[in-house]
Amino acid sequence: MEPWQAFLLGIIEGITEYLPVSSTGHLVVAQRLMGIGTVDSLDKMAADAFAICIQGGAILAVLGLYYKRVLQMIMGVLGKDPEGLKLAIAIIAGFIPAAILGMLFNDWIEEKLFSLWPIIFALIVGGAAILGTSWWRKKHPAVGGGKDLIDLTWKMAVIIGLMQCVAMWPGTSRSLMTIVGGVLVGLSLRAAVEYSFLLGVLTLTAATVKKAVWKVDGFGGQYDTLFGGTKLMWEHYGTVPLLIGIVAAAVSAAIAVKWLVSYLQSHGLTLFGWYRIAIGLLIGGLVASGVFSA
Where are the membrane-spanning stretches (predicted)? Predict the structure, then answer.
């Protein structure tokens, strides 16, 4: 992997991770276009590991922007901030469904859904869902919640966590499902977005650690050890591309998060619905025309 490729993938990861457009879908397409992960099974596994591990940059971005909330939760766990403890419990409750289902179905998902047609389908359907939801909210402006983040209960958080599980289908978007889930349980759009970011820190951290320490079976046992995934990735790409990808993801994610919060205040999600449909149709056209295989 060339440094410019790592930089571009980091930018794509950072911009798309917290926007409701699917970072996984964009990274898979970008890797295909650059010929990354297309040589053999090991090359694909190394590319998948790289795409997951550069999420560390996006995690750092949110930790930096929302450090006050993070400190509040830490103080809550230490018994010094009741509201912080309540929020920490809500974050953990929202994470549990994905943790359980992820362990049960991760291998099946990677085998069956990490190809372009399922991603294209998810992009278009997700876009149509956003447009439908936006239309419904305009027709029923008085309906919906306006609760603050501190009003979130663990039961509401579990519902959002179940919505997050839908995003295990690549192309769906974790941010989209958690933001929609937050609005459905009664949070204001701003509170739903903030919860989505904070829940993402825990979810993405768990996914990054898992991919870094996971064992790669087969291939003569060469990577069938703890941190086998990390060894595979470093042998393919080296340390420099990973660092470049993480830094690029951190900077671009910080910019994207600040922009999204400001944009949603007055515009809503409609733009992302049209974008998802357009990019889904574009990728579908490229696959159908044979530019690259599904």
Answer: 49-67, 87-105, 117-137, 149-169, 240-261, 273-292
Q: 108 pLDDT exceeds 80?
A: no
Neighbours of 98 (CB within 10 A): 24
In angstroms, the CA 134 to CA 289 distance is 33
Q: How far does Cα 88 stand from its chain's mean position?
A: 20
Residue 130 included in any domain: yes
- Whole-angstrom Cα distance, residue 121 to residue 263? 26
Is residue 290 classed exposed, middle or buried when 0-12, 13-18 and 19+ CB atoms within 10 A define those classes?
exposed
Q: Residues 37, 228: contact at Cβ < 8 Å?
A: no
Check if the beta carbon of residue 56 is closer than 8 Å to that of residue 249: yes
At residue 226, φ and ψ (nearest 5 deg) are: -60, 135
Q: How many domains does the chain have?
A: 1
Beta-bridge partners for 147: 187
Amino acid at 256: A
**Domain limits for position 29:** 3-288
Q: What separation, in Å, do the N-terminal and C-terminal C-alpha atoms of the chain show?
A: 22
Task: Please state, in angstroms and rounded to a whole number, the distance separating the CA atoms of residues 61 and 194.
Answer: 13
Mean pLDDT for the chain?
Answer: 85
Neighbours of 36 (CB within 10 A): 24
Q: Is residue 78 one of the residues assigned to a domain?
A: yes
Instruction: Report the 10 Å Cβ neighbour count for 67.
Output: 10
pLDDT for res 79: 92
Q: Which residues contact 67 (CB under 8 A, 6 or more apart)?
A: none
Contact 245, 54 (CB under 8 A): yes
114 domain-assigned: yes
| pLDDT attached to residue 15 | 93
User: Both tokens of residue 96?
Assistant: 């549990």
In a domain, 216, yes or no: yes
Q: Can you read off the two tokens belonging to residue 27?
A: 């990274």
| pLDDT band at residue 161 under the 50/70/90 scheme | very high
Q: How far apart are CA 184 and CA 156, in angstroms?
A: 9
